[in-house]
Amino acid sequence: MSAASGPPAPEHLDVLVIGAGISGIGAGRYLRTELPAKSFAILEARQASGGTWDLFRYPGIRSDSDLHTFGYEFKPWRDEQSIADAPRILSYLRETVRENGLDAHIRYHHKVLGASWSSAEARWTVDVERTDTGERVRLTTGWIFCAGGYYRYDEGFTPSIPGRDRFTGPVVHPQHWPEDLDYAGKRVVVIGSGATAVTLVPAMAGAAAHVTMLQRTPSYVLPVPREDVIANALKKYLGQRRGYALTRRKNIAQQRVVWRLCQKYPKAARRLIRWVNARQLPAGYAVDTHFNPPYDPWDQRLCAVPDGDLFRAIRSGSASVVTDRIASFTETGVLLESGRELPADVVVTATGLNVQAFGGARLTVDGREVRLPDTVAYKGMMLSGVPNFAYAIGYTNSSWTLKIGLLCEHLCRLLAHMDAHGYDVCRPEPADPRMPTRPFLDFGAGYIQRAVDSLPRQGDRMPWLTSTDYRDDVRLLRADDVTDPELRFSRASRTGGLTTRPAVRADL
Fold it and tell me: Which of 166, 178, 219, 385 has its CA 20 to 30 A from that of 475?
């Protein structure tokens, strides 16, 4: 190459999907089937697909949503287990990759560092690091679809606990589970009360001498059947696809009813959950101490325990629950503020996640950095003032993937609309810049509250509200038109600038 020719131009793609987990794989499938002429790649920072289901390796890891709604609408869940373990989910995801020819589109060891939008060129320039070699590469793309969820893959949340260095045993976080951790016959203390803790305790109880779940505040815990008898019968008699479709509709309705009842009648829901818990626990158990949270049901996510395995471990004596605050570690365990010491050979800090929006990538638009708290979410999938950028955030009050499928469908329809009308750019802009806003995720979980000030906001009206209801989102994202008066379309002019056009209504 001669000096005059300069460096080669970066590779250009129509769409760049960030993340090869459940959301990114779904996005790739929709792009292949709905927009087959579009070029796209899926960038994955890790060495394997599957996201959460490949990353987490702690004992007992499983879904806390049924796979008939957590799975894709386009691909039936054929396993008899409705609440499934990670290996089964990972197999399902990788089968989806193979069946839809996505292997050639996934680029592993590609971590997105930042992306800069140029209005003059109507495209993103994306800086990528090869995590296996350290090499930096640059791509350009018309659209970015961020499908990496909202938590950090490289670091879990562990609060500072005095005296940690004094403890002589291992202290592990579930997000970084050591393959060689030996807890057989040992005393284990699991710090936490969320979905990870209630999964770990019964899974470890079979091999450990004893497992204690140490919680500061109780969570709502509900036993659910590991196998859905109705679902398996429907699939047997109606076939996989029809049975799956009917089960999916049944479970969506069921989730919605439970959510609505908890919101409308929180005191009755609390009493019902307490009654269910009391029936699962030994006679005389201190239910109100260990299983009666100070908040209403669904202010935080309910923890599902398949076939009541947590309660079964408590009944057998192989596990117990302690509700107290930690004063410090000791050489041989954990000292509580009550003065009691819990002996431990192994401590597991199931204390949650660190939220990180869009993988921590730095975004700029025409040289100005995008400050996420200054943006407002549009239809729960785009950001005000940020062109040609979409993201996938699922539900917190039901199965994550229910919303992801609707978002992917809507994005494909939006791109088809732009192609049909010759648009290069679309940018959400609130008609009223003074529109009142509130947190993006109205959710009481600690990991959300710790990061709420670093996340986008949502407005007080549609399309700036982030819906948490599947039925509402079906109307908004599937049945309604992709255009909106507050979504501005434009096309690049011959001089390199952009010509703004009013939204054209077109039902596609």
Answer: 385
- At residue 444, the pLDDT reads 55
Distance CA 413, CA 25 (A): 18
Q: 355, 198 in Cβ contact below 8 A?
A: no
Q: How many domains does the chain have?
A: 2
Closest CA to 467 of 370, 375, 381, 351: 381
Compute the distance between CA of residue 104 and CA of residue 255 in angstroms, rounded to an integer.
Answer: 36
User: SS3 breakdown of the chain: % helix, strand, coil, rounded to 5?
Assistant: 30, 25, 40
Cα separation, 182 vs 164, whole angstroms:
20
How far is the C-alpha of 5 from the C-alpha of 381, rounded, in Å? Answer: 40
Angle between helices 309-316 and 195-205 (to 10 degrees): 50
Two tokens at 45? 């920072």
pLDDT at 42 over 90: yes
238 lies in a domain?
no
Task: Provide the residue range defining the domain that includes 115.
Answer: 11-153+355-501
In the sheet with 333-336, reading across from the earlier edge strand, the strands are: 326-330, 333-336, 341-343
Residues 472 and 365 in one domain: yes
Q: Which own/partner contact pairs does 125-131 have at CB distance under 8 Å and 24+ positions apart?
A: 125/10, 126/16, 128/43, 131/45, 131/46
| 3 state DSSP class of 18 | strand
Distance CA 102, CA 106 (A): 7
Q: Which residues, including other chains, have CB under 8 Å from residue 249's CB and lie 6 or more apart?
A: none
CATH of the domain at 35: 3.50.50.60
Distances (CA, A) of 400 to 223, 317, 485: 20, 34, 29
| Cβ neighbour number for residue 289 with a 10 Å cutoff | 12
Domain contains 2: no
For residues 140 and 34, state if they share a domain: yes
Per-residue burial over 138-154, b = 16 or more CB atoms within 10 Å of its CB, e = otherwise = ebbbbbbbbbbbbbbbe
Q: What is the mean pLDDT of the chain?
A: 90
- pLDDT of residue 231 exceeding 70, the answer is yes
Calculate the alpha carbon distances from 482 to 62, 86, 346, 476, 491 in Å.
Answer: 36, 36, 53, 9, 17
Q: How many residues are recorded in the chain?
A: 508
99 pLDDT above the threshold of 70: yes
For 284, the 3-state DSSP assignment is coil
Give the bridge partners for 116, in sequence order.
125, 364
User: 106 with 207, same domain?
Assistant: no
**Residue 106 pairs with which residues in a beta bridge?**
42
3-state DSSP call for residue 155?
A: strand
